[in-house]
Write a structure and sequence with these properties.
It is a single chain. By secondary structure, this protein is mainly alpha-helical. The chain has a domain at 11-70. It is 42% helix and 0% strand. The chain has four helices and no strands. It has helices at residues 5-10, 45-51, 53-68, 74-80. The mean pLDDT is 85. The structure holds zinc ion.
C-alpha cells in the first residue's frame, strides 16, 4: 500500500518510511518446488520455512482477495471511468 501507484500519484512528495522493506524472491529460489509458479500450499517445506508463515499468510490473504474480486470488462470499466481513454 505504501508504494501503490495511486498513492504516489496523489502525493508527489511521497516519502517511503525508513522501516519499509522489500523482499525479492528470485525465480530460481528453489529447484525443488519452483515457488515462482507453485501454489502457496504446494511449496516445499524448506521454502515455507524460509518465506515464513507470516508472509505466507499475507500471500494467502492477497490470493483470496484476488480470487473474490470481480474484474470489470471493458464495458463496465468504461462505465466506472467514463472520462478515461479506454
Ligand atoms: Zn521450494
Amino acid at each position: 500500500m505504501e508504494l501503490s501507484p495511486e498513492d504516489i500519484r496523489k502525493d508527489k512528495n511521497k516519502v517511503v518510511p525508513e522501516e519499509f522493506i522489500v523482499y525479492i524472491h528470485f525465480e530460481d529460489f528453489c529447484q525443488v518446488c519452483s515457488p515462482y509458479e507453485t501454489e502457496i500450499e504446494d511449496l516445499c517445506d524448506q521454502c515455507k520455512a524460509v518465506i515464513g508463515e507470516a508472509t505466507l499468510d499475507e500471500w494467502r490473504t492477497v490470493k483470496q482477495i484476488m480470487e473474490n474480486h470481480d474484474f470489470p470488462g471493458a464495458e463496465i470499466g468504461h462505465q466506472l471511468l467514463p472520462n478515461v481513454d479506454p
